[in-house]
Amino acid sequence: MAENRVYSAPGDxxxxxxxxxxxxxxxxxxxxxxVTALCMIVLLISGFSFFHPSxxxxxxxxxxxxxxxxxxPIVGIVLVASFLLLFLQMWKLNLPRREDVEWSLRIGDLxxxxxxxxxxxxxxxxxxxxxxxxxxxxxxxxxxxxVMIWEEYFPHLVSIPTRRIAVAVHALAALGAILIxxxxxxxAIWTRGTIRAMTRGTVTGGWAFxxxxxxxxxxxxxxxxxxxx
Length: 229
Hints:
Blueprint: E1 13-15, E2 21-23, H1 27-51, H2 65-90, H3 98-105, H4 107-111, H5 126-148, H6 160-190, H7 194-199, E3 202-204, H8 205-211, H9 213-225
Antiparallel strand pairs: 1-2, 2-3
Helix pairs in contact: 1-2, 1-6, 2-5, 5-6, 8-9
């Protein structure tokens, strides 16, 4: 029983109505998620504007080159703080489990829509966990290299050759974050009913049973043993 409890988080709950509704994310978590997403979008656009002279026109979206140069690292700090809050809420739920290996090996069945052949999953599948840990690692790289190249406040932190390497690593990490961000958005759209979880905070019982059955069973078991639910 102790192992099963990690599949749910505060705020997860089954509501008795027709159709059955399952609470998946609290309002605070949803707000935290959208702040993080907004920061990512601002950083990607502002970062692109400095990536190549042909993209410099994008700085006009933020009031010009000087404003964009000031805004980019500031939003980066907000992103780190916001993502840290998400990380503290979700890291335990994203730890790898044995069923993740089987799920990954049967990814072809998922793409064909034959999810009955897949193992029962907790709150997140292996793909979602890959996005979570991949983004965690890349944000750590981005903030580290970002500080190294932030000349306004850290002009003598590293040597010029080291700073040049940091710029290249920063750009490569940003490219990786873009790819993961696109994958995350595509998966949310492709899996019908997923976006609702981050807009309304709930999913249908059918969605939970199909995609995250182990998590749903844990919630149902908790509801039966807790008279307050």
